Amino acid sequence: MKLTDVLILGPAELEMVCEEYPGCAVGDVSPSYSLIKQYRITIEVDDENDYYNFLLDNSMATSSHNFYYRVRVDKNFYERIRRRKLK
Length: 87
Description:
By secondary structure, the protein is of the alpha+beta class. Helix content is 47%, strand content 23%. A 3-stranded antiparallel sheet has the order 1-3-2. It starts with a strand and ends with a helix.
């Protein structure tokens, strides 16, 4: 399935995402003079939880619009993330 997300990233983090998800489509949605930018990425994933785990494992979860939204509106997702953090 296709997943589209908006992330606030520096160059190194963007490179990590592109290495993990080869063929991802990246669009810049912030001014060109910013070092830290917002990027719209579209990737193919089998399970969106794998994507969220990747963000968590690489300390990028809070830069993700989708992750932040899911934590706020989906109680089950919130509880799963909270339990993972407590481990």
